[in-house]
Structure formats: structure tokens, C-alpha cells
Write a structure and sequence with these properties.
Helices cover 26% and strands 19% of the residues. It has 181 residues and is an alpha+beta fold. A hairpin with a 2-residue loop joins strand 3 and strand 4.
């Protein structure tokens, strides 16, 4: 009969108890658990060369390659097999924001610009506006001080007594390194 009264905890019972307690605790979240409750951090991924609408408008047929490189920068893809074509691609992926992918291709005939193909490119100001995330600012404190508050920080009133002189400083200091013979 004493063997019947002895209660032994096994590892399975302990695991079942912990799982049950943790699941019961999840019900206390407002709205319960959803797919968006726990999200891992996703770093920003920026790849390629950003080309703006202003840079695109600066390109003119007949420009030499060196001048195109000055306007757009070094191409992301310049293939040996397609020496007459430079590709500029740009992508940015941020958490909570739709990914942005932009593409521009320039074609050359010989050493001069012949043709430009591109997506609809944003201006620099539009692109900078896309990068800013709207941030909610809580209630801001009232930035106003009364005369009593300002008086707490006022300097003490001036007195007619001269300031107390500081202790006299020595005229010479000992050397930092011992003298060598």
C-alpha cells in the first residue's frame, strides 16, 4: 500500500505540465497569439546603384562613356560578352515596407551613348521620402517654465567682497622622467 501512495514525477509529466502552463499563459495576451506576435529582426538590405530621375534626364544620346560614368557612376553589371551595354540595378528591402527594385540600362554604339531603357525612376526627394518611416510620437511634455522655476537656476546675487584667492601654484614642476647621467 505504501508503494501506491508514493508519487513519482517522470520527465514526461514535467514536460507536459510546463507545456500546459505556457499555453495557458498565452491566452492572457490581448487578442491571443497571432502570426505577428513574434517577428524576427530583418536587417535592411540595400544593393546596387541608386539612379534618380534627375540623373536619367542628364543623359543625352552621343555622350561618351566617360561622361555617362560621371553621371551614373560605375555600372553594377558590365559584361565582357555585352560590352555595348551597362546595367544599373538597385534594390532595397526593409522590414514593414514593400521592397523597391529599380533598373536602368544604357546601350552604346562604339564609345558613345545610343539608347537608355529604365523603369519609372523616382527623384532624389521622392526616394528620400520613401526611406522615412512614419513614427508615432507620444504626448509631448509642455515646455514652459514659470518665473519661480527660472529663479531656481538664477546665479547667486553679486556681493561686494573680493573673491577668495586660490592657493598659489608652484613655479616649477618636477621632471616627468628621471635625469640620465
Amino acid at each position: 500500500m505504501t508503494a501506491f501512495l508514493t508519487f513519482r514525477f517522470s520527465g514526461r509529466w514535467l514536460v507536459a505540465l510546463l507545456v500546459g502552463a505556457s499555453l495557458a499563459g498565452c491566452g492572457s495576451f490581448p487578442g491571443g497569439l497571432s502570426r505577428d506576435t513574434f517577428q524576427p529582426y530583418v536587417p535592411e538590405v540595400v544593393q546596387g546603384n541608386f539612379v534618380s530621375k534627375e540623373q536619367r534626364q542628364a543623359l543625352r544620346p552621343g555622350m561618351p562613356r566617360a561622361q555617362v560614368r560621371e553621371v551614373l557612376g560605375t555600372p553594377l553589371v558590365a559584361s565582357l560578352f555585352h560590352a555595348e551595354r551597362w546595367d544599373y540595378a538597385f534594390s532595397i528591402q526593409r522590414q514593414g515596407v514593400a521592397p523597391q527594385n529599380l533598373r536602368l540600362t544604357v546601350y552604346f554604339k562604339g564609345d558613345v551613348l545610343d539608347q537608355v531603357e529604365s523603369d519609372v525612376l523616382p527623384s532624389e526627394a521622392e526616394f528620400a521620402g520613401r526611406l522615412v518611416r512614419p513614427q508615432s510620437v507620444g504626448k509631448l511634455p509642455l515646455l514652459q517654465a514659470s518665473e519661480e522655476d527660472l529663479m531656481k537656476f538664477a546665479p547667486p546675487p553679486a556681493t561686494d567682497q573680493p573673491p577668495v584667492p586660490a592657493a598659489a601654484l608652484p613655479r616649477q614642476y618636477p621632471p616627468l622622467e628621471p635625469a640620465t647621467p
